[in-house]
Amino acid sequence: MTERQCPLCAGDATLVRPLPAHGRKEIRGIDCDRCGTYYLTEQAKMELGDPGRSRDRVMVSWVTRERSEQESPITLCSSSYKPSGEPDGVRIDEVLNTMAPHSIPERIDRALLNLARRSRHPGDPVVVDAGKDWPLLFTENREALDFTLRHMVRSGLLDEFSSNDQGGG
């Protein structure tokens, strides 16, 4: 394993071995504290690397983190990918159009579901690290995560929260 930069959030990431079904050399496995474990083709990495796609990278990181937390890592393929008997991958445009939440209410609902998955039972405290968990709550950064958590408390969706900001971007 080699230390690398995450193609989605630019944070520190570890290159992991692709799943055995991914015998193609251009598929990389990434393990990132923010974006979770996911796989991507070299073409997808190049597509998402475009400087004008920063919002797309954030939205894709929401989905990769959620899927990683569900222990169902996703394989990202370029928007031009056409499956031909290889292991299934998901095109970036599919992630953006059908898998990522688009409205604020949908983002809040899915964030609550992600928090609930971390809880063993109702009332169990859930730890959220603002430096690395912002994709899990479908926010763009730690400041947006803090705002979202405060909104959830004011709306009665959460009882309380206290910030556990460990740094990072």
Written account of the structure:
The protein has 169 residues and is an alpha/beta fold. It folds into 2 domains: 2-99, no CATH class; 104-154, no CATH class. Helices cover 34% and strands 15% of the residues. The protein is built from 5 helices and 6 strands. The protein has helices at residues 42-48, 54-69, 92-99, 104-117, 142-154, and strands at residues 2-5, 12-16, 27-32, 36-41, 75-77, 90-91. The protein has a 6-stranded mixed sheet. Strand 3 (27-32) and strand 4 form a beta hairpin. Helix 2 packs across helix 3 (92-99). The model has no long low-confidence stretch (mean pLDDT 86).
Q: Identify the strand order in the major beta sheet.
A: 1-2-3-4-5-6
Tell the overall outline: elongated
Taken together, the total number of domains comes to: 2
Write down the secondary-structure element order: EEEEHHEEHHH
Distance separating the two termini: 23 Å
How many individual helices? 5
Task: List the main descriptive attributes of the protein structure presented here.
single chain; 169 residues; alpha/beta; 2 domains
Q: What's the quick description here?
A:
The chain has helices spanning 42-48, 54-69, 92-99, 104-117, 142-154, and strands at residues 2-5, 12-16, 27-32, 36-41, 75-77, 90-91. It is of the alpha/beta class.
Secondary structure topology:
Layout: E1 2-5, E2 12-16, E3 27-32, E4 36-41, H1 42-48, H2 54-69, E5 75-77, E6 90-91, H3 92-99, H4 104-117, H5 142-154
Helix pairs in contact: 2-3
